[in-house]
């Protein structure tokens, strides 16, 4: 049963990450936490997400917003150590509860047409939040996804800039996770067995990307955010097994 769940989740999450530029950690991490220990789930997520971003970056690099990418990286450099401190020292259920409520609130605001303008300070702030969430719960996506949705960024720019940022954030986060929390054989063997699923997801996701218009892309975004916020909320309250 666990193998079936692992297979389905990794394949769907890989397709989602390839076709949208986000979603692997958002979709995969909650289910991986049902199968693995928290540190194992987060590290498997980091490894596979890093591989997907590396495989796609050459194809999408022309659409990367370099200025935003640089500010995201700068901001995340401050957020990464904060996140690992949270992971090692603070009750993660409390963190998940706060994050879930914030995600749900902001997503509802976006659905009801709340929009924001992008500027350099907000780029830095979003990068910092993303960095802290990567090393604490393995989910860098929500702050970036909410920000890009609120600024109505084109799907091509969103996907490419997010994937380029993930190359940095996932690599550094993985190094920090392994250094401070340790690692084990389960993490690397599970990641190895997931490689064929990731390859299939890369192929299918590329096909799907060309068929998604901006409106459907935005709907995907809202559904993923609502799912993530709801899952984290229920898990933090102990309503999930």
UniProtKB/TrEMBL annotation:
Record's signal peptide: none
Annotated membrane topology: Multi-pass membrane protein
InterPro entries given in the database record: TM_pro_TauE-like (IPR002781), TSUP (IPR052017)
Keyword field contains Acetylation: no
Chief location category: membrane
Keywords: Cell membrane, Membrane, Transmembrane, Transmembrane helix, Transport
Membrane-spanning parts: 42-60, 72-90, 96-114, 163-181, 187-209, 216-234
Matches recorded under Pfam families: TauE
GO cellular component terms given for this protein: plasma membrane
Compartment(s) of residence: Cell membrane
Family named by the database record: Belongs to the 4-toluene sulfonate uptake permease (TSUP) (TC 2.A.102) family.
Designated name of the protein: Probable membrane transporter protein
Organism of provenance: Planococcus maitriensis
Lineage: Bacteria, Bacillati, Bacillota, Bacilli, Bacillales
